[in-house]
UniProtKB/TrEMBL annotation:
This is DUF3791 domain-containing protein. InterPro entries: DUF3791. Pfam families: DUF3791. It comes from Blautia parvula. It comes from the Bacteria.
């Protein structure tokens, strides 16, 4: 799931994969995905990416696509 979301974020946000990986590590998005996996595995990747975007915004990180 993490790999799919990294690629999707890269495409949606028009950022290189390396930058997405750095952002996800810095904001502990991968830990968030692991913690919420029980809910996320029932949703589509687009919905999960929207949740991650809100998670990042809650941390003061704005993503503009």
């Amino acid at each position: 799931m993490q790999t799919r979301l990294i690629r999707l974020a890269s495409e949606e946000w028009h950022l290189p994969v390396e930058q997405i990986i750095h952002l996800f590590k810095e904001a502990d998005v991968l830990g968030y995905i692991e913690k919420c996996y029980g809910i996320f595995h029932c949703e589509g990747d687009e919905a999960v990416l929207e949740d991650i975007t809100e998670f990042l915004q809650g941390k003061g990180i704005e993503i503009s696509a």
